[in-house]
UniProtKB/TrEMBL annotation:
Residues 45-58 have a biased composition (Basic and acidic residues). The keyword Ribonucleoprotein does not apply. GO terms for biological process: phospholipid biosynthetic process. It comes from Brevibacterium aurantiacum. Residues 69-193 form the Phospholipid/glycerol acyltransferase domain. This is Phospholipid/glycerol acyltransferase domain-containing protein. The lineage of its organism: Bacteria, Bacillati, Actinomycetota, Actinomycetes, Micrococcales. Residues 45-67 are annotated as: Disordered. The chain crosses the membrane at residues 298-320, 332-352, 358-376. InterPro entries: GPAT/DAPAT, Plipid/glycerol_acylTrfase. The keyword Transferase does not apply. Keywords: Membrane, Transmembrane, Transmembrane helix. PANTHER family: GLYCEROL-3-PHOSPHATE O-ACYLTRANSFERASE 1 (PTHR31605). GO terms for molecular function: glycerol-3-phosphate O-acyltransferase activity; glycerone-phosphate O-acyltransferase activity.
């Protein structure tokens, strides 16, 4: 069994947890976590109150927990997906591409276990003998009692269904189970109402822990295939998995209508999406979504105008987002640009506050009001 020191070393550092939490909260707001694997009685009681059962991860992630957890997540919105998983598993580490941590700037808010692909060895002139395989790095982390996040799709895509799942997570799980380690495997689905828009909805669905098939004397490859199949099926249950693009767009719009009209509770968009996805052959799922109200556009412009004090930050974020190469990377680019601008603009505001405290104070209050206005349930994207 791992010691407390080992478990602490296996966790994501508090600095990165704080920065990631701040960035995702400013951009999306609070990230609700829908736990569909929670105790049925607690979930039913919550449903009776028209609220979503949300697990408190602060207690389950304490350093007294010794069981390692392998978190397999859908991958829909680029590098920002890791921020959302951290909302449910704040101490998790991730297997990440080495290109994301080669820059000092990116290392300020991105951390993880580097994955070095064969092409990275050549690109960055690395010593092949010093490169650890992703499976070895992942199993070593889990042996120390940590939480490990993996995106089995390997790359992200904003589509109507998951991409092909890679087998790395299954290999890690099989290796640890053979060693007698009590491993918990948890599927996680990520949902975005509008992935590339500021203050839109981002929600996390935590699925029921996966039951790993026994080996029963089978060849390792056969067993790994069965484990990979079990993981894929569990991940499909809590992820966007529509038959075609048209169905996806319709369910996406209808789920947003439900979220806007449902008072109280959390993760209403994700819950509505999954319900409509399961009922995609019924009239409820096939119904045309309500037309967008002009009030939404007007209120968004008003909200952004109220944030005039931070116009340089918003402008830098907008410019960076325009350089993204796909819809699923826009938010990440905006966060990069906005974070860089904050590092310059906030010190300027601090100095300005000594000379014009009233103006700066009014600007901050105005910005907070604008941010809250953009998050109003009935008008939020």
């Amino acid at each position: 069994m791992s010691s407390k020191a080992e478990q602490t070393a296996a966790s994501l550092g508090w600095g990165h947890r704080f920065i990631n939490a701040a960035m995702r909260t400013v951009y999306f707001g609070r990230i609700p976590v829908l736990d569909v694997g929670a105790d049925p009685a607690a979930r039913n009681e919550s449903a009776d109150r028209s609220k979503t059962f949300v697990r408190d991860e602060s207690s389950s992630d304490s350093t007294t927990r010794s069981r390692p957890r392998l978190i397999i997540s859908s991958h829909r919105n680029g590098a920002i997906d890791g921020h959302q998983v951290l909302a449910a598993f704040p101490r998790a580490q991730f297997l990440i591409s080495i290109q994301l941590i080669r820059s000092w700037f990116l290392r300020l808010f991105i951390a993880g276990i580097p994955v070095v692909r064969p092409k990275d060895v050549e690109r960055y002139n690395l010593d092949p003998a010093s490169v650890t395989s992703p499976v070895e790095a992942g199993t070593a982390h889990l042996r120390r009692g940590g939480d490990l996040g993996i995106f089995p799709e390997a790359s992200s895509e904003w589509g109507h269904r998951p991409q092909h799942y890679k087998s790395g997570a299954a290999r890690i799980a099989c290796t640890l189970i053979e060693e007698g380690i009590d491993l918990e495997v948890i599927p996680v689905g990520l949902f975005y109402s509008t992935p590339d828009r500021f203050r839109s909805r981002a929600e996390v669905v935590r699925g029921k822990s996966i039951t790993i098939p026994d080996r029963n004397g089978q060849d390792r490859s056969v067993w790994e295939d069965q484990v990979a199949s079990a993981m894929g099926s569990a991940l499909d249950e809590v992820s966007v998995n529509c038959p075609d693009e048209e169905t996806f767009e319709r369910i996406q719009a209808n789920a947003l209508d439900v979220a806007r009209s449902t008072s109280g509770g959390a993760a209403t968009f994700a819950r509505a999406f999954l319900d409509l996805q399961r009922e995609s052959t019924t009239a409820a799922a096939d119904a045309a979504p309500a037309a967008a109200s002009p009030a939404v556009t007007v209120l968004r412009w008003v909200g952004l105008a109220l944030m005039w004090l931070f116009a340089p930050v918003l402008g830098a974020a907008a410019f960076a987002g325009s350089r993204a190469d796909g819809r699923n990377t826009v938010t990440f680019f905006r966060l990069l640009g906005g974070f860089a601008a904050v590092m310059v603009w906030v010190p300027v505001l601090i100095v300005a506050a000594f000379f014009w405290p009233l103006v700066i104070g009014i600007g901050i209050v105005s910005a907070v009001c604008g941010w809250l206005l953009l998050g109003l349930r009935r008008f939020r994207l």
